[in-house]
Amino acid sequence: MRLIDGELLNLVEEGDPQKVADLLRQGADPDCRYTNGYTVLMGAVSAWKQSPEKRYRIAKTLLEYGANPFYISSDGHQALTHAFDIDVVECLLDAGLVIDTNIATKIMYNFHGNMQIKSLLKKRGIKTKWFDSVIQIYYRIQEYDRCSLYDEVLKEAIPVIQNSLCQMERYKKYDPDLPFCSDIRWDFYALSRINELLLLDFQNKTDGNDPIQVTLDEYIDFWVKAGLNVYEPKEFHPFYCEIYKVKECMELPNPKLMDSRWPCLMFGDLLFSRASVSVSASTDCIHKKTAEESTLYWSHQRWDRKYEDLSLGWGSNSQWRTSFRFDYWSNEDLLYNVDHGDKCENDELSTEQQLELLKYRCFVKTVEMPDCFPYNYYSTEKYKRRN
Q1: Contacts of 126 (CB under 8 A, 6+ apart)
Q2: Which of 18, 67, 169, 209 could crosslink 62 through cysteines, CB 3.0-4.6 Å?
């Protein structure tokens, strides 16, 4: 391989559009290949460390200097099937690439049925064999901009989610021998993302946010018909309740449940979503500012507080490879994060702080510690639930 071509391959990985253009002007081969047989264009569109803008600019530059978008590697891959970004897909199609239904369907799956990619292919008269999936339902809700979400999207989505939950029926009861394989973790996580999107409508709106328009009755009806059960806690417990508001009351020995914004949802004995509640509590139990404002972990989206889960910062494909947190109520035992058993050895939090963060999913007494990674914490607790 020529030295200049090796430099081009490296620059694509580094994500510098201007230097890539400079090397192409100097005679670098826009179709040079890596040792695996993939072209520099294939590397450019799939450079996951780079921003979507840089991937697009480098791909466009390579095409302008003659890169071949039609090239198919010995293992059947091409630039289009490696693309992360809708703008890059459009750029490759603009370069004259003609694709069949099978390739179009593969692209749809790569983008999890995102309505934008679906519209792009439809506009160009490209047919696909795509069918609804849980992740596509998430995108349909996210991109919905009218005022009949329940009737136009959620009703149609119920059979898809029913089918998904039916396939996960055995996870309703805790079984220590039950394998929590990656596909199951990811499937539950995708369902939880739909839930968090719908819950935005019941949170305190901040400027610039446009809530999904669904009523609480519609929200409950949707999930019950899909296969979940509603549980209204009779008393406060962090297993079932997420705190959104605290009223300080020094006379109370234990936090007292006041009201809720939305209910708790269960899948048998598996916790799917906690109720959002306000509580009265003494400062010995809960610090108002900390409980209301500290980062909420295992949460992908909130409008009225900081949040974090392991999907944040990843692209349209990788973010869906995030694990759901499995908490169970089983024979008067509360089981937290049952499929994670590797605590971080050099964790700066005390055991008490770890349990606080695990059970509440945020800090409620301790001053918030930065850069926490509670996702491997686990615990059990005796608790007799009031029905």
Answers
A1: 99, 101, 104
A2: 67
Alpha-carbon distance 369 to 290, whole Å?
A: 11
What is the end-to-end Cα distance of the chain in Å, rounded?
A: 72
Measured between alpha carbons, how far is 24 from 97 in angstroms, rounded to an integer? Answer: 22
176-234 tens-digit pLDDT? 998 899 889 999 999 999 999 999 999 987 665 566 789 999 999 999 999 999 999 99
Sign of CA dihedral 359, 360, 364, 369: positive
Looking up tokens 């990985």, which residue turns up? 13
Is-contact 254 231, C-beta < 8 A? no
Helices (H), strands (E): how many in the chain?
A: 15, 11
Domain check: are 52 and 154 in the same one?
no
Question: How confident is the model over 116-166, as pLDDT tens digits?
Answer: 888 888 888 888 766 678 888 888 888 787 888 999 899 989 999 999 999
Do 310 and 318 meet the contact criterion of CB atoms below 8 Å apart? Answer: no
**243 inside domain:** yes
Phi first, then psi: what are they for 78, rounded to 5°? Answer: -145, 170
Which residues constitute the domain of residue 64? 3-98
Alpha carbons 19 and 25: distance in angstroms, whole number:
10
